[in-house]
Amino acid sequence: MFPEYRDLITHLKTTDHHFLNLFEKHIELDQRIKNMELGIEPATHLVIEVLKKEKLALKDEIYQILRMAAV
Prior knowledge:
mainly alpha
């Protein structure tokens, strides 16, 4: 996610607790969605859709923080 910000992400994960929480939650959701799509974890299409929207919202928030921090 956001390879152009790789160094900044590494820095923020160690200095910004809020950013770290967002980043970890995004990773958790991503894995959970993959598990659901593979049938490892049971879920309906509606549940998967809701989680994907939540993941996208987290990604948007992460991107905004990265853009502001890169200035």
